[in-house]
Write a structure and sequence with these properties.
By secondary structure, the protein is α/β, with parallel strands linked by helices. It contains 13 helices and eight strands. The strands form two sheets. A four-stranded parallel β-sheet has the order 2-1-3-4, sandwiched between helices. The model has no long low-confidence stretch (mean pLDDT 93). The chain binds iron/sulfur cluster.
């Protein structure tokens, strides 16, 4: 599908307040770590840094990006901060901003993050040359939620085995929705939802829950199916996590609403509940149970400290309840996923 021209503003994290970009007339463009660009990030970043940020930097250096009005970085981890530092030294790279993301979701964190969202709004206004007011932000939140509902409906179809192409096709649709202006993205998702139901139920394959961070390649999701793993639910940074509804109560301050909705969605590994340190393990366990899975696969990119630190506790929580866990480490290439084929096949076989 041809992408219509737009004032694209780049982002790289599922915590980015996308409606702020749309409210200024910009189109959010997720810079996904999918590219044929040569490895050049090593000139500016340490080799042992997460390949997610390295591939994004490779795209910037190689100018493998649409014209961007600006680039929004969320201070999710040390690697993302390093990327922000390096991005500003790339010739011709779009102006950028780094917004701080609290690791917790209590009242003071929400108030702080609301201030960061305000700051982002002022920056995006300067990039797009348009002002953001309450009604524009409310309309942008509404549009975002429409997309989220479509993504939700599409995910339900995939889980029920009635969308041709399954998770691989859903991932391709999510990538498109994260890199295309609202109207075109909505048209594409409605097109998929309008298709006649396919019968792709593979009841003989064991149901497995997929979680983790960065895995945007649709072919990687097709690989799970080819290995006999029936994915029945997912929670990935590059998956449905980007399309989580934002509360749209009309009385509250818009930035505060955005902040609370983003911080209080299901946690990823870099968010921390001081009152309940093992909370993420419980969230994963609850999601596995809800999905009806017999086991879980965690896909994380190499050197992702937030995820790698949390996995032992997650594994313990799952094992205590009899759910095996397979951990796959990748480098954002299909090649690295291919190397896991035998392990995925064996894991699926074990769960039959
Ligand atoms: S994948 Fe992990 S290390 Fe890389 S940017 Fe995301 S949270 Fe940070």
């Amino acid at each position: 599908m041809a992408v219509p021209p737009a004032d694209f503003i780049g982002f790289a994290c599922a915590y980015t307040p996308l409606p702020v970009i749309a409210a200024a007339g910009g189109a959010p463009y997720r810079v996904l770590p999918m590219t044929e660009s040569p490895d050049q990030a090593g000139r500016m970043l340490h080799d042992n840094i997460c390949p997610h940020v390295k591939r994004i930097l490779d795209r910037a250096i190689d100018r493998d990006l649409p014209e961007l009005r600006g680039m929004v970085f969320v201070n999710s981890c040390d690697a993302m901060r390093r990327l922000y530092d390096a991005w500003r030294r790339v010739d011709g790279a779009a102006p950028s901003v780094l917004i701080d993301l609290p690791p917790t979701a209590d009242e003071s964190a929400v108030a702080f993050f609301a201030g960061e969202i305000e700051r982002l709004a002022r920056t995006v206004e300067s990039w797009c040359g348009r002002t953001i007011d309450r009604s524009k932000l409310s309309k942008a939140v509404e549009q975002h939620n429409v997309l989220c509902d479509r993504v939700d409906a599409l995910t339900r179809r995939v889980e029920a085995g009635t969308l041709e192409g399954g998770w691989s096709r859903l991932q391709a649709a999510l990538n498109l929705a994260a890199t295309t202006p609202f109207d075109a993205a909505l048209k594409h998702l409605d097109g998929l939802l309008g298709e006649a139901p396919a019968d792709r139920r593979r009841a003989s394959d064991p149901p497995i829950f997929l979680f983790g961070n960065v895995l945007p390649d649709p072919d990687a999701h097709a690989l799970f199916e080819a290995c006999g793993a029936r994915i029945v639910g997912e929670d990935m940074c590059t998956g449905s996590r980007t399309f989580t509804r934002i509360d749209s109560d009309s009385t509250e301050d818009s930035c505060r609403l955005l902040a609370a909705s983003l911080l209080r969605r299901p946690r990823c590994a870099r968010t921390f509940d001081a009152s309940d340190p093992g909370r993420m393990s419980q969230d994963v366990l609850d999601a596995v149970k809800r999905s009806g899975a017999k086991g879980a696969i965690c896909h994380t990119v190499k050197f992702c400290d937030p995820y790698l630190v949390r996995l032992p506790l997650v594994r313990e929580a799952l094992q205590r309840e009899g759910y095996p866990l397979l951990v796959l480490e990748g480098d954002c290439t299909l090649r690295s996923m291919g190397q896991h084929r035998t392990r995925i096949e064996a894991f699926a076989e074990m769960l039959r």
